[in-house]
Each structure stands twice: as structure tokens, then as C-alpha cells.
Design a protein that fits this description.
The protein is mainly beta. The protein has 2 domains: 37 residues, no CATH class; 266 residues, no CATH class. The strands form 3 sheets. Strands 4, 6, 7, 8, 9, 10, 12 and 18 form an 8-stranded antiparallel sheet that branches. Strands 3-2-1-19-11-17-16 form a 7-stranded antiparallel sheet, with no helix packed on it. The protein has a 4-stranded antiparallel sheet with strand order 5-15-14-13, with no helix packed on it. A hairpin with a 2-residue loop joins strand 13 and strand 14.
């Protein structure tokens, strides 16, 4: 441990003096105090794979799993263990922590199928994360020259998580993708700002008539940044490991809450999350009743202990 502390001190000294931070217990200090640097990072990842069964208008789970890891300040894994976690159809009786939802406009439109949402929840001694994965489809959505009529699938993911026992979360996000190396995605959306206590987004099917828009919202405590991107993600990929398949990144959407994470006063002690939406399109001729596609959803929580010194001494995560 002594070697790690020396490295941390050198990093802080290189930064030079900065403004005096506000400490949770009333102490004062500056960023030249090596004890203010974070020594360990905690992370939980969970994923689910869903098969779209058009014959029975259902989503079938193919696999799910979760992992907990602890890393040092340099990113080296100190501990790693699999977690017992399974996805399940979302029911009204399933506990929901936080307020988040997807809303469909024009839900009575012909050829629109609304599938039962799936719930992917993880809970530990000091955290709780839950994301809901909603899927919708429209047959004969539009006519595209050279392709013919198309079949469209839209996904809407909402959720997030919270931490306690003096932990701060600095990243809470989700990703959704189609397992296809050909470009299928024609639209994406995520929350970028907090308005009236929520981050929200909306995405419409690309249809010639009877438009349908899906809106997602997540209530959060405004802090730091809410954003998203398509393709790889620098804060997700290093911890997702084998879940990342480069040829499928062409059809991947990421969304997240993110904050600085250098010092023990960084991050958030409140519920954080985001919305995630994607629109995929396929030739209708290639998607008869027997058509099926496989979609993957995952979420990532990254946090640290905020206790002085070095962010150590919190209860189990």
C-alpha cells in the first residue's frame, strides 16, 4: 500500500495548490493533501440478452449476468467476483427505486407492437441499480427505394441507481445494441439536461403516416453531466470486458450520468441515471413472422468511498 500512496502523492503535487474543498466532516484541506485522493474504485456491471419473438410477440431472455470488481487508482483489478442476478419481466409488484418511465404516443396505431418490458436490477450492501428495457416494433413502417417496405424496432431504456454508506457514484449508465454487424440503427436519443427534476429524451418511428413517438424520463438530483454516444464508450468498455464486440458497436447506444472522480468530494450521493433510445430498421421482406433478432442491454455503476483518507474504510459495497 505504501507504494500506491507515494504514487498518489506525486500526482497531487504535480497538480499544485487549488481551492479549498468542502469536507463532509468539517475539515479543510487542499488538493495537495494526498489523503484527499481516491485509492480504490468499486464497480458493478450487469447485462441481459433478449430475443425478439415476433410469432408470439414476446421478448425471450437468452442470458444474463453480473460482476463486482474493485480496482486501484491505476485501474488494476484488486478483487473480482460474479454476482447472482437475473432479468425478469417487469411487473407492477416489482419494487422500483426512483421515478423513470417510457411513454408511447398513439399507442393504438395499426401494426404497432408493444412488448412487455424487462427489468434488470442489482442490489448490494451500499447500492441499488435498476434499469427497465422497453421494446416496440412497427410492421410496414415505410417504403424505402431499393429496399421496399421496412420493419422498425425502437427501444427505450430508463433507470439508474443510488449509493449510501458514504459511497459516491461517479458513473451510472446503460448501453443497448443490436447484435448485427450491418448498420441497422437509424436513430438514437438520450438525456442531456435536467428540466423540472428529470432528464428526458424522445424518439419517433420513421413512418409515412400515423406517427408514433416514444418518450423516456428519469427523475434525478441535478449534478455534474448527463450525456450519451453511439459506438464505444471510454467509461464503459474498460469494465465491460468480453461484452464489448467491436463489430456490433455500429448498432450500439450508450447513455449515462458522469462526474469527476479524482477526490473524495467528487461524485454524487443521490439517485442518478439517464434515458437511452435507439431505432433500428430492417427490410420487411426479411422479417416475416419467424423473424428474430437478438438485443443486448447492460448497465454500469462506478463508485468510490468518500471517507478520509484515500477513500478507504467504508462498509462493504
Amino acid at each position: 500500500m505504501g507504494r500506491a500512496v507515494v504514487a498518489v502523492t506525486a500526482m497531487v503535487t504535480a497538480l499544485g495548490a487549488a481551492a479549498t474543498p468542502s469536507w463532509a466532516d468539517g475539515r479543510s484541506g487542499t488538493v495537495t493533501d494526498s489523503g484527499a485522493m481516491i485509492y480504490e474504485m468499486h464497480e458493478v456491471t450487469a447485462n441481459v440478452s433478449l430475443k425478439l419473438d415476433r410469432k408470439n410477440n414476446t421478448l425471450i431472455p437468452l442470458a444474463s449476468g453480473a460482476t463486482y470488481r474493485v480496482r486501484d487508482a491505476a485501474g488494476r483489478v484488486l478483487r473480482s467476483e460474479p454476482l447472482t442476478l437475473s432479468a425478469r419481466p417487469h411487473q407492477a409488484e416489482i419494487q422500483q427505486v426512483g421515478e423513470y418511465k417510457c411513454v408511447v404516443s398513439n399507442s393504438g396505431r395499426p401494426n404497432l407492437t408493444v412488448y412487455q418490458p424487462w427489468d434488470l436490477t442489482g442490489q448490494g450492501n451500499s447500492y441499488y441499480v435498476q434499469y427497465l428495457y422497453h421494446v416496440y416494433s412497427i410492421d410496414f413502417a415505410r417504403y424505402v427505394s431499393g429496399v421496399g417496405y421496412t420493419f422498425q424496432v425502437e427501444t427505450c431504456t430508463t433507470g439508474g441507481g443510488d449509493v449510501w454508506n458514504d459511497y459516491h457514484q461517479w458513473f451510472n449508465g446503460t448501453a443497448f445494441r443490436d447484435r448485427d454487424s450491418s448498420r441497422r440503427i437509424i436513430g438514437s436519443a438520450w438525456g442531456t439536461a435536467v428540466v423540472n427534476g428529470a432528464v428526458s429524451s424522445s424518439l419517433s418511428f420513421q413512418v409515412a403516416q400515423d406517427p408514433v413517438t416514444i418518450g423516456g424520463s428519469v427523475n434525478v438530483q441535478q449534478q455534474d453531466n448527463y450525456s450519451g454516444n453511439t459506438g464505444p464508450n471510454e467509461n464503459m468498455d474498460p469494465v465491460l470486458g468480453s461484452w464489448v464486440v467491436p463489430e456490433w458497436n455500429i448498432n450500439r447506444v450508450n447513455s449515462y450520468y458522469v462526474s469527476p472522480h479524482n477526490f473524495i468530494w467528487d461524485g454524487s450521493q443521490d439517485f442518478q441515471g439517464n434515458t437511452n433510445q435507439a431505432l433500428f430498421e430492417y427490410p420487411q421482406a426479411g422479417s416475416p413472422v419467424g423473424f428474430w433478432g437478438v438485443y443486448d442491454g447492460t448497465w454500469v455503476l462506478r463508485a468510490f468511498c468518500s471517507r478520509y483518507p484515500y477513500g478507504l474504510g467504508c462498509p462493504d459495497f
